[in-house]
Amino acid sequence: QVQLMESGGGLVQPGGSLRLSCAASGFTVSRQIMSWHRQAPGKERDLVGYISSTGAVTNYADSVKGRFTISRDNAKNTLYLQMNSLKPEDTAVYYCRRGLNYGDWGQGTQVTVSS
Predict the structure, then answer these.
(1) Dist. CA 90–CA 94, nearest whole Å
(2) Whole-angstrom Cα distance, residue 89 to residue 102?
(3) CA quadruple 85, 17, 20, 43: dihedral, nearest 10
(4) Which of 11, 29, 75, 81 could form a disulfide with 20 if both were Cys (CB 3.0 to 4.6 A apart)?
(5) pLDDT by residue (tens digit) across 57-100?
């Protein structure tokens, strides 16, 4: 069955970096649009960005553009989210998703940006 397992979250100081991973099983990430979303306390889950099935296209929310990068390793069937220049407002639970507007979710990983 389809499974998505996020990892790599944690506590980081403002200006720091983290790389999140999303290990997929039960399907092939290179044949799907894959996306990252995040949900801050008391707020709705928002799209962070996505990568096309070919990997040729990535797109990001304005709030993370220039700081976050989505990539994937087809051999490992894993999606990544590289987050640089982190800000306190990036604090949220981060989820990967098979698809963009619908599809399977992972369980999420907490990212806390605080001094």
Answers:
(1) 10
(2) 25
(3) -50
(4) 81
(5) 999 999 999 999 999 999 999 999 999 999 999 999 999 999 99
